Amino acid sequence: MSSKILVVDDEKDILELLKYNLTREGYSVITAPNGLVALEKLSLNPDLVILDVMMPQMDGYEVCQRIKTIEKFKNTPILFLTARTSEADEIRGLNLGASDFIQKPISINKILARVKANLRNAELLSNSVEKSGEINEGPISISREKYSVEVESKPVDLARKEFEILFLLASNPGKVFNREKILNEVWGNEVFVVERTVDVHLLNIRKKLEKYAYLIETIKGVGYRFKST
User: Fold this and answer.
1) What is the pTM for the complete model shown?
2) Measured between alpha carbons, how far is 113 from 195 in angstroms, rounded to an integer?
3) What is the distance between the alpha carbons of residues 215 and 197, in angstroms, rounded to a whole number?
4) d(CA 193, CA 183)
5) Mean pLDDT split into 10-residue runs, the chain, 229 residues
6) 203 CA to centre of own chain
7) Residue 45: left if φ>0, alpha if ψ -120 to 50, beta else—which one?
8) Which of 14, 52, 114, 138 is 20 to 30 A (C-alpha) from 80?
9) Side-chain half-sphere of 47: how many Cα atoms within 13 Å?
């Protein structure tokens, strides 16, 4: 079954251009001229969303935020199309859960490549993590069931919260998590935990990963992500 892509843009020419090229690549394409219609078309269960930022009635940021509050779409890749180039705009989108940013004027080849990569990552997450609880990313192997981490087949001793953070990041390669999101996912409703705690735990994890510490990347002004291998 072909992947289903929801394309949201208030410019008719862009909608038609993307639909034509994505369909040629074998994808099933749903289109929406604005954010309100896009939210209605979530009932068609898209596997990926291409979302314009600047739209009337409801901009792309608000649409993204609403999509990510729906449990079944929390891991659905969202690719922003934007004419904005500032770092602040990109940080805002990533903090809301976007997977990627593509600047206008659009390059069809770049969009097709990004769509393919994001769908592949989403499929890997679904197949390897949700079903087995096992992650194998390059030299690192993580077992949720055994609470174990191995680097080049050698065990690495992580504290429980360190393990939870590493598992969260590694199970979503390429996705940026800000400190607040990591706190919510790992500590939940525990009290007296501050954002600085995340930095300390990440520092400890990197030390224990030794030469593979580079796999955990710091995205300045945003948060952290596990480098897709």
Assistant:
1) 0.62
2) 35
3) 20
4) 8
5) 92 95 96 96 96 91 91 86 78 80 88 87 60 77 88 90 90 87 76 73 94 93 85
6) 22
7) left
8) 138
9) 19
